[in-house]
Amino acid sequence: MKHNTIIITGTRKGIGEYLASYYLNHGYNVIGCSRSEASIAHLNYRHYCLDVADENEVKKMFLELSKSYAKIDVLINNAGIGSMNHVVLTPLKTVQNIINTNFIGTFLFCRETSKLMMKHKYGRIINFSTVAYPLNLEGEAIYTASKAAIESFTKILAKELGQFNITVNSIGPSPIKTDLVKNIQHAKINSLIEMQIIKRFGEFIDISNVIDFYLREESSFITGQTIYLGGIS
Amino acid sequence: MTNEILNIVYEAISELNELSEKKIEFTSQEKTKLYGSGGSLDSLSLVNLIVLVEQKIEEKLNKSLVLADEKAFSQNNSPFATIDSLVEYIKELLT
To answer: Under a CB-based contact definition with an 8 Å cutoff, are residues A81 and A15 in contact?
Structure first.
């Protein structure tokens, strides 16, 4: 397989770590990042310790990447944080942190990657939404709002980048056993799973399956879309 | 510094001209209009030019710049109105 280069944000644990390992095993060069040191050691893996919402750090990373890699083929904006709380009890700082990591981080990585992809007139960008958006879940107002912003952003970016042969899509995972859901009450998670057509936890492979679909050469006509897992729409 | 930046902008415009059907004529040199009234760039070509200039600044000056600006698409006071205003804008960002 041709060695393509893929950027994945939030690769230290959970879905990001899985995706980095998965695409390394599929022959990609993987560039990952997280706030802390890498959990992956591989010849074709490069890690950056940074805050995805810090413009200077992100710009510095892309300056290095533009010198080291001929092109970037894929961006997966996985980095995200969540917080369950009633709006009335939510501190402003929490809101700022969630918007910064989830939306600003996605924006910065899309902007900088797009510049490199435009040069080569090819690219695939995949952003992360959530089923909490179509379900309008109580207690997840801020997290869901940040993901709603990502969905709108994805659709408009798809329009702006379409002429450069760059597709932009998103995936909306249902609950998966990661750190993001471990602090949510079992009853709450179970009631969420009951809303799905297929009533089970999502698996990592369900995520990589949707991303693989977006990455296929035959998916060049698919852009501005969101696929939700578990039958949510 | 001004000459270095000017050369970068000229190089970026030359590259853009190779890619576009509608060419930017350099006859008025620094006064050449780029975007807005009398300019030859549409919004898409402006995006392309900004990306090319940013990349050349990275390559040649080893500086990472974001040329995006609130006023980028303003018809009246866009920093991308002429080659001159673009060079001045880059100089300002680099200092």
So the answer is: no
- Asked if B82 has any chain A CB less than 8 Å from its own CB, the reply is no
Task: Report residue B74's pLDDT band, with 50, 70 and 90 as the boundaries.
Answer: low
Could you tell me the residue ranges of all domains in chain A?
A: 5-228
The predicted pLDDT at position B26 comes to 76
Order of strands across the sheet with A226-228?
Answer: A45-49, A29-34, A5-9, A74-77, A123-128, A166-172, A226-228
Q: Domains (ranges, CATH) in chain B? A: 2-21+31-94 (1.10.1200)
Q: Are A10 and A207 in contact (CB under 8 A)?
A: no
CA B54 to chain CA mean position, Å: 9
User: pLDDT digits over A128-171, tens only?
Assistant: 999 999 999 999 999 999 999 999 999 999 999 999 999 999 99
Contact A150, A112 (CB under 8 A): no
A5-228: CATH number: 3.40.50.720
Query: Which residue in B51, B57, B64, B65 has the most chain A C-beta atoms within 10 A of its own C-beta, making it the best mutation to test that interface?
Result: B64
Percent of chain B with pLDDT over 70: 94
Q: Is A63 on the interface with B (CB under 8 A)?
A: yes
Q: How far is CA A172 from CA A68, A78, A126, A134, in A?
A: 32, 11, 11, 9
